[in-house]
Amino acid sequence: MWIPTEHEKYGVVLASFRGTVQHGLPLEIGDTVQILERCEGWYRGFILKNPNFKGIFPTSYIHLKNAHVKNKGQFETVIPVEDSVITEMTSTLRDWGAMWKQLYVKNEGDLFHRLWHVMNEILDLRRQVLVGHLTHDRMRDVKQHITARLDWGNEQLGLDLVPRREFSMVDPDEISVTELYRLMEHRHRKKETPAAASTHHLFVHVKSLMSANLGEELEVFFHIYDGRENRPLSERFFVKLNKSGLPKSPEKTERQCTLFVDLGSSDLRKDVYIVVHIIRIGRMGAGEKKNLCSVQYRRPFGCAVVSIADLLTADSKDDHLLKVYACNTESEWHQIHENLIKKANSRYNLSGSNTGLAVALQLLHGDIEQLRREYMVLFTRGVSITRKLGFSDVIMPGEMRNDLYITLERGEFEKGGKSVARNVEITVYVLDIDGLILKTHVAAGSGEPGGDEYHSLVLYHNNSPRWAEQIKLPIPVDMFRGSHVRFEFRHCSTKDKGEKKLFGYSFVPLMQEDGRTLPDGTHELIIHKCEENTNLADCPRYLKLPFSKVNLPSNNQTLKGTKESFWITSFLCSTKLTQNGDMLDLLKWRAHPERINDSLSKLKEIDGSEIVKFLQDTLDTLFGILDESSQRYGLKVFDSLVHIINLLQDSKFQHFKPVMDTYIESHFAGALSYRDLIKVLKWYVDRIVDAEHQDHIQQVLKASEYIFKYIIQSRRLFSLATGGQNEEEFRVCIHELFMSIRFFLSQENKSTSPVAQTQAVFLRTFPAVYGELLKIFTVREVAGFVRETLGSLPTAVHADCLEAVKLQCIAKTVESQLYTNPESRCILLPVVLRVLQAHMQEQRDLVMCARILTSMLSLIKKEEENGTAEPVVSEEVELIVESLLGVLLRTILEISNRPQPAGPTMRLQFQDVTGEFVACLLALLRQMSDRHYQQLLQAFSSKDNLRDFLLQIFTVFRILIRPEMFSKDWTVMRLVTNNVIITTVLYLSEALRKNFLNDKFDYKVWDSYFYLSVIFINQPCLQLESFSPSKRKRILEKYGDMRVMMGCEIFSMWQNLGEHKLNFIPAMIGPFLEVTLVPQPDLRNVMIPIFHDMMDWEQRRSGNFKQVEAKLIDKLDSLMSEGKGDETYRELFNSIIPLFGPYPSLLKKIERETWRESGISLIATVTRLMERLLDYRDCMKLGEVDGKKIGCTVSLLNFYKTELNKEEMYIRYIHKLYDLHFKAQNYTEASYTLLLYDELLEWSERPLREFLNYPMQSEWQRKEYLHLTIVQNFDRGKCWENGIILCRELADQYESYYDYRNLSKMRMMEASLYDKIMDQQRLEPEFFRVGFYGKKFPFFLRNKEFVCRGHDYERLEAFQQRMLNEFPHAIAMQHVNQPDQTIYQADAQYLQIYAVTPIPESQDVLQRDGVPDNIKSFYKFNHIWRFRYDRPFHKGTKDKENEFKSLWVERTTLTLVQSLPGISRWFEVDKRELVEVSPLENAIEVIENKNLQLRTLITQCQSRQMQNINPLTMCLNGVIDAAVNGGLARYQEAFFVKDYVMNHPEDGEKIGRLRELMFEQAHILEYGLTVHEKFVPQDMRPLHKKLVDQFHLMKSSLGIQEFPAYVRASPVHFTNGSPRTCRNSVPNIISPDGGRGVARRSLPSYPAVNRYSSSSLSSQASNEVSNITGQSESSDEVFNMQPSPSTSSLSSNHSASPNVTSSAPSSARGSPQMAEKHKHSRENACLSPRDRPVSAIFPNPMDPAQRAAPHQIGDATLPRSDPNLSAPDKVRPTPSSWSLDSVKEGAPSFSDSFGKMLCPPVPPRPPYSAGSSAKNMRSQSPVSASRSPQKTTVPPFTPSPTECQSTSLVSNSPVLSGSYSSGISSLSRCSVSEASGTELPAGDHPAHPLPPPSTLPNSVSSSSDEPIRRENKTPPPYSVYERNNPRSRPVPLPHSLSIPPQADPPALPPKPHQLRTGSMKLDGTSDPRVPRPRPLPRKVSQL
Q1: What is the bridge-based pairing of β-strands 1390-1399 and 424-431?
Q2: Three-state SS across 816-833?
Q3: pLDDT for position 1461
Q4: DSSP structural state of residue 664
Q5: Sign of the CA dihedral with 1130 first, then 1135, 1139, and 1145 last
Q6: Residue 685: which of 702, 705, 667, 700 has the closest Cα?
Q7: Which of 324, 349, 328, 297 is nearest to 211 (CA)?
Q8: Mean pLDDT estimate for the chain
Q9: Which pLDDT score is estimated for 1537?
Q10: What DSSP line would sit under 1862-1906, residue for residue?
Q11: Given a cut of 50, is residue 1774 above it in pLDDT?
């Protein structure tokens, strides 16, 4: 039986549990569980991170922990009873864990590893805390370390800042908002700017001295030196080095490491240096030979300096190699470091090139105790302390120090009878009072222990040596009296014995007889001469002698006159001894009572450090004097006391305040002093008003805190001693004192007057007195003093500074102990509020006001927590609300709207004050109860006042919600803010309903309310979906979902509005829509019905809801692009799935209305738009590939254009698409995209407003700018033909304005584009068909197929890989069959990719023999609508001996909605056509293509276009070799046998055609061999001979003896000369020497279908491929040659040659083997060459229906008004006519009949067609007859400036331009195109021979000859043409329609000049005088 648990509530999982039992709950190790019930070894409960899923688990798997249960019962929550730091660590580490893995995924390796180390460190520390064995101090350190690490990690991961107090997280509900703000601010500041340490320390570690010539031991001395003042700042650190230059005692680290302590911030300057002096110990001369002398001397070696400032910039632990400079002249040794600092190093030698002292230097910051904790290792292993000379910046009480520093400066010695100067060495001893040497009290420096004596340097032969050596004498205080220092002087002989002979001595006593120590400074000591054997042990004898020349009596001329002297400098640093006689006199005042007056006067002159040394003794002295003779010395003692108290205010001595406090509490014994102190203080206060000089009085008032402390303590001592006598007298004295104070405070003065400054001084110190007064007086009495004192200040104060001080005084009062008492608070609060209100109203001293208010409100919260009586707190809140709420709101508004100050410090202060006021407002509102709100609202006297208040508070709330109000990571503060806001709004909404509805309706207040609500709901910090589960859970538990609460409130308020709702339509549609986009189901269910309501009310008012619709769509676009909304939102609108909630979906509600049809239509539109917008939003996310973004933008752009008719949106998305293309370097697509906008504009002067990045300008200027940009991009994209058309149009515009400068530039640009066409190489792109199947694809791709234009050099494998990278979850399909429905409906992504072959439209250009490949390449791959894919298969049984018999081809033709390239790299497939090509037709195509390839190569060879002849050689070899081996014979066996002819009578003509082609191929080969022989190089002659022999074999195998006549009159046209002279489209046979033949007919061929050759005939597939592609085609031309088709006999067993392969499409290398089953494995993503579709191997001729289809007449001449009229109703085409000179003799009847046959009725215009006649004329006009240049009669073209360009890209005429007058028709069609042409069926083509394409009649003819000539040129097709009329292009005529043999060659067509008439013509017969219509106004007129 399951029993609810009582104590077992919370546990941690010890081992993972799979939960395989029924109702089992799977558990992971480390999970925390909440236990609900127990039953026989099992618990039932849930994991805390997923409370919705409950189950059972074994008790043995759980470790129980103590926990506190809240809300016992069904909704109980469990809080573990453990240290809050542990709880925080656990939850934080869990959150970090998930994010840490993401760092790895995002490749943020550095942070990943750093976080890993920190997490491990926290886990280790957590273990230490949990074990519980730490000491209290250590626990504190560990917790501090943990919280620092947690904060670091949170900051790095962008998590929230955690407010803490004493390392524990703070519950925001348990503290005041003001206190919460302060905690957050403190932590934020700490994070931003760590406080600069005032104390610094230099760590020095000596490593070694590197030098080549050592050999002697060294002593190294470090000290810190002030280069500005030229004095040492520290004592010396001394290290001994051995002969190798390494420390002598490596095991004792304290001998090689030191810490220079207590450096102030002022010491870290550039001119403060570390100076190193190095002394060698050895022979006198460094290079002396070793002799018997064993005496060692200390001799100079070198010096090094380094600036401390260098250490601030260097890495903290860098090793430094200090350059050591040797001193050449020993007389300068004392100042070598100064010279080095002055950069005078040139006079010194470096001790060696590689000499240097290796030391580690590191600056450490903070006090020494902090360093001991942080650098524990440093102190545990040993480090010596090197002190500063003198005290540190801050002297600590209790610090013991007694160091005497003596510097051996210099000496003056006589020769002493020697011929050379002496080598003087000094020995220093310290002797005590008994004359005994003090052991170990002479130290050369820190680092080495002190010795008994010290030996100075020896300077060689120098009678005036300067040593500048500092020694330290750490003599105990008690041994100072009577001690002295003795200096013995010896001459060091350099003779063999090396003796040191004593010749004199000096001494100096350390303390004078009066107890003063040796004064600091330089002392000139007398050198007493003595002999070598003099006994100096008898100290009393020589101590009687004078020691200093200063102290010599005037009669002692003997010693005064001596030249020998010795100078030392002494410096005492002692906390116990003094050198000051005045100080000693004061302390010994009883001995000399007559000196008391003098001593008290001189106290002010004594150095502060001397006074604090003897603080207690000095105070005892002062109060002793006061007690004994108060009348005489009272005032002086008081002044001295004031001086000492104020001395302790100095930062250097402030740490002695506790010493004084301790003295007052424990040692002060002046029980009678209070009377004198009060009397003197009152005397001073009474003199304030009249005194001229206020300085001394101000000093007295500054010390008032401690004076009161002495007064109160003295009175307490007196009361204790006397049992409380004279109490009344004391009270009267104090009251009188305060009356005097109040009197002087009440004086009104100017701010500059001394009295005002004295008042300010008193107010600053006054709050410190409260605590002392409370020791004797009651709380109410003290509060009364304070109230009266503060109240005595004049109300109209002129002094600003006094006002500020008054406010500071109030602040300290509020923060004082006095104010915390409720009794005193009720007395003081009115005073405080009055002052605050006055300041805040005038916006003065806001920082201080905020501080005061913060303290007040924090206190109220604390009182409430402590259970203080509710009425007291409530009354205080009421008072504050009444006085300050209004002014507080105004203040926040003022400072928020103020411009922020410039300086960073000021800005911080500004932000602080704003934040503090906000926190105060929130704290106040949170403290307000129902009663307070009621009183507040009732207090307003009029509706206007209430209205102003509501508007004010709503505005302030909007400010509080701003993201910049708090730092990004202050989520805790934001949530508290929101909680307060929603609570307040709930109270205020009632007032809104009561006071501002019905007749009293106020739109402004309601609008402000709704606006606030919307902003509130949309805050980022409330979007719980974006938070981690644990954070979301915490927020929901504490506050619930505040968005839903506010949503319900909006709905409730909306329902109350009634007919006033109309005021908010459509204004509130956008904001409410924004709310519904929040992915919170409850909120949506609440908000969606408001839209229904809006539609209903709008319908009632207007009869429609167009406004609602327009606003909805505009807002949806802007919101979705910001990343809001999701899939379920669309469903909410559309009711795709049933919704559960209080409201039905919008669609269901609409279905009940009378206006449901228009409503449902709106919902459908919005839903479709949303689908696209959602896709767009998802694609625009960071990291998405450009392909997706572009496709999605195109989809959306088309939707805005075709369905929504939103021109502005359409243009915006055009530019977004342009930017995407430009960024992806798709320059051609970028041009086409920008053209869409260009087409909306006209060449007019209409002004356009500023839009996107365009300035305000005329329409003409913008169109010009667009044209230039588009041309530039076409140039970059190598689409020069398109750029030329725009150049021409611009040129015409410039010409019409006579802007010849720009016209010239434009013509030059056009010329440059022509040059680029001819000179630059263009890469030929691949095209790929991609099918996107499955529901997981975005809407714009789902279950659609596209054709994509590949990138440069991109082949099938690369493209497939790219697509799979773009769609990483997609599965690549391994077959090319159309997928079935299961694939379409699958919840997955399937990609089907294969290569397709483009079918060029401009066949006439491609079939001209003389057109260079550079030009043809454009027409092969541009403006392609149709693509083909061929799949070979065998029908029936396969003939193993001859597979050609049954080889069929399944040909799929894909027609796109738009031509490629266009505004995207891919377009959707609009139509699929499937035809089967019979084996015979296949054979014809194969041979046709091979013949065409041969012709092209022969032509190139003849016209010298080939650099070498190899391609022709290989092609001839391939064809002849294949034919010899049975290629053509296989076709003969298959199709020429009797059986085939009998069984296929319908194929008779085709068999004849095949036979002709075979003969033709033989003839071409024969001709090719003739040309080959002419150009073949000598080394290839044997190959040529072999080819000729094989060709004869081939002819004989085919049975050819003589070519038939029709073959001899072959249409092969081999021209001589340049391509420019080869414009004839009529093929002629020309002899190899250039003779002319006769043209004949041939079938059309499609040269652009393939990239590399294959044999036309083959017996076996493998032979064929090896014969053809096995040859290496190295020439560039081979890549552009006309490819031949292939059949399945072209097996992929043999790969193509490298050269061929590199240029050929990857898809063109093999035929697919159809898989029997669909294979969807991702591993086989790319089709292998064998499995690849063979579209690129097969030829691309039209099917038989297309082959003979004549040119269609387009709809260019149709009017644009009615798309539904049939063509004949609109226009009658002009009759076509022959216009070729070459057929003048031809029969007219034939021409006419042919013209009629080729001109069927004009097909109906597609509904979206919008092209100009000029465009269509250009796009359909066939190639006219051409003449050779020699015979032409057309005069040279001279441009005329008056001519107009009729074939411009965008017409001048509004009727012909790409834009309509309004609505959707103003947009050019770009998304959907439909076929408009008709094609004749296969059987309809004429059987008799027809004229060639060159003789084709013009489809739109003109009465004059010029337009015909103009239209003869086949123009570069252009996007506008195709978009407007995709199917009205000319279908090229078959080559079989050739001119009869007897006809003359046709004339060369004239150059394609522009029509130069004055205006654009609508058709060939238009009247040029027709006036140009005015452009109609458009919908969006200013874009």
Answers
A1: unpaired
A2: CHHHHCHHHHHHHHHHHH
A3: 92
A4: I
A5: positive
A6: 700
A7: 324
A8: 74
A9: 87
A10: SGGGGSPP-S----------GGGS-SS----GGGPPPSS--SSHH
A11: no
The single residue listed with the structure tokens 């400098």 is 569
| pLDDT per residue as tens digits for the range 1676-1720 | 333 333 333 333 333 333 333 333 333 333 333 333 333 433 434
Encoded tokens for 1191? 């496709």
Residue written as tokens 């260009």? 1238
Q: pTM of the full predicted structure?
A: 0.58
The stretches of 552-614 forming alpha helices (DSSP H) are 557-561, 581-587, 596-602, 608-613
* 1784 burial via Cβ count (<10 Å: 0-12, 13-18, 19+): exposed
Q: Is the pLDDT assigned to residue 1282 strictly greater than 90?
A: yes
- Measured CA to CA, the distance from residue 819 to residue 813 in angstroms comes to 7
* CA gap 148, 1242 in Å, rounded: 67
**236: its two tokens:** 């010396």
Which pairs count as long-range contacts for 617-624, CB under 8 Å and 24+ apart, including other chains? 617/587, 618/586, 618/587, 618/644, 619/644, 619/660, 619/663, 619/667, 619/668, 620/667, 621/586, 621/587, 621/589, 623/668, 623/669, 623/670, 623/673, 624/589
Average pLDDT over residues 106-122: 89
Reported as type and span, the H/E element at residue 1529 is helix 1527-1535
pLDDT > 70: what percent of the chain?
A: 72
Cβ-contact 895, 846 below 8 angstroms? yes
How would DSSP label each residue in 309-346? HHHHHS-TT-EEEEE-EEPSSGGGGGGHHHHHHTT-GG
Structural tokens at position 418:
């020697």
Beta partners for residue 275, in sequence order:
223, 305
Q: At 473, which helix (H) or strand (E)?
A: strand 466-473
Question: Would you mind telling me the total number of residues written for the chain in this entry?
Answer: 1983
Q: How confident is residue 1817, by pLDDT bands cut at 50, 70 and 90? A: very low
551 vs 1434, more confident: 1434
CA distances from 1791 to 139, 1522, 1625, 1796, 1873 (A): 110, 43, 19, 9, 34
- Taking alpha carbons only, the member of 741, 736, 856 closest to residue 790 is 741
> What is the C-alpha to C-alpha distance for residues 1018 and 978, in angstroms, rounded to an integer?
12
1766 pLDDT higher than 70: no
Residue 1450 near residue 1377, CB atoms below 8 Å = no
* pLDDT recorded at residue 397: 62
Segment (H or E) for 1789: helix 1788-1798
pLDDT for 742 equals 84
Cα Rg of the chain, angstroms: 53
Q: How far apart are CA 979 and CA 1042, in angstroms?
A: 8
CA 1205 to mean position of chain CA atoms: 37
Look-up of token digits 């009361």: 719
How far from the centroid of its chain's Cα atoms is residue 1485's Cα? 59
Residues 6+ apart with CB under 8 A from 641: 619, 622, 703, 707, 710
Instruction: Return the residue matching tokens 């027709």.
Output: 1970
- Residue 491 parent element (H or E): strand 484-492
Residue 275 pLDDT grade (very low, low, confident, very high; cuts 50, 70, 90):
very high
Residue 1976 has pLDDT above 60, yes or no: no
- Reply yes or no on whether the pLDDT at 830 is more than 50: yes
Q: Would you give the DSSP letter of residue 1553?
A: H
Site of tokens 């130069």: 1956
